Amino acid sequence: MSKLRIGIGRFWHESNSFSGVVTNPAKFRDASMGSGIAVGAAVYDYKDRHDEVTGFIDVLGSRDDIELAPLISAGTLPSGPVTDDAVSELEKSLRDQLRAAGRLDGVCLALHGAMSGDSIPDLDGYFLQVVRQVVGPDIPIVAPLDCHAVVTQEMIALTTALVAYRTHPHTDLFETGQRAADILLRTLQNEIQPVVSHQKIPMLFVDAGTDVDPLRSIFDEFSAWDKLDGVIGCSLCPSFPYQDNVEQGWTALAVTDDDPELADRLARQLAEIVWAARHELLPVPMLSVEAAVEQAVAVPGCPVVITDSADNVGGGTSGDTTTLLQGLLAARQTVDGLILTHLPDPAAVAELADAQPGESVTVAVGGKCDTHFGAPVVVTGELLCVASGPITNDGKFGPDAMIETGKILCLGIDNVRLVLTEGVIMGPQPSLFRKVGIEPFEAKIVALKSGTGYKVTYGHAAKAVLRADCPGAMSYNIENFDFRRVPRPIFPLDREMQWRPYATGDRA
User: Considering 162, 191, 220, which residue would you say is the last residue of a domain?
Assistant: First the structure.
């Protein structure tokens, strides 16, 4: 009996419609955060990243009755919509690898679910269509998603099943890959016949994370449904609200074993639970940077974390807006202890290429990559340290992956420690500060460009977390964005709207 041949791969990009960061072919070839493009056997080079592909390999790779066909792993840090030339390159690589793979009995293709292009609004669906064109309509395809997927009708129609992360901050990439591979394997062995139903919930805002209520309780509740007879798995995708997409909204997904009525009922039930909690799910009010510093000073011990979620690189921003830095500098004399922060700024690093530690330097920092949200700030301080990457990823999002930072500089501006890097890095990494000889947990204030990722790396040590209200392409003030394609009405842009789930759900 011939072995089952299963294609595995991954496309990962979160596309922010309001980001000024261009997503071109060069960005996909960037090796930061272990991203880049790998084809064929080179996909295995990422096997230690603890992501979805690693989960596929864990479930399928050691079986004698399965032969894996690695296709492509392509990803880059979140940024603006993907350019047409980048899409063309990725599509060609995917088609080439599918043809080279020959016969395939199934495919596990990890997708972000919020990948859009300059000309194609749903790139995840587009790449699934490419796979279908090559393998045909009957081969099972299972796709794990980031829970911030903007789930589309095409994604559902082209796959056998979709499963999404159940954590935010995302710590279950590996486990989600395992779940997807298990569904594919059981489908190929004729143990199950997946049926998918979904409900699109008209909500558009940032979720606060699955580690806090009400979302924690909601995720706990539907995750427990896995134990019900006939249930393969349910998912909730709170979407990525910074994508101006006609299929925008939260999505409730239910996958059952050949039981469409059960799938409909569970998708509807999950949608009802989420809609009933919509007011509780809204982001909490934030503080000005000055007010955040004032409150931080009053907190005993250290560190106190101040976050700027509006410039969170993990959602496609530039990472170099300067509102947070300006506020820290203005209030630094009120703080007893170190204030740590970071900006990616290759131009400033290059300008200081000949400077030596101990020298006083003056340089304009930040505000260069995306000029919509603030101008550069001129700072004068002592160059304390010069280092170079990579650094270790301290989080669980690809734990222990080496992050390419390029050259690293640390400037001392009184008690402010400003770390500048050549490269953009995702996630609040304590290892970045340690690279320049600073223990961040001993600083009074650690100011981070982060939405929820700080919880993984700093949550256990922070004496308090204060959220600063800054401008940026991921501002929680969702009503300030110029949405032109998002379906209306949608909550909270249309706060008084009424809605109820569809009676039968949408099935694939």
Answer: 191
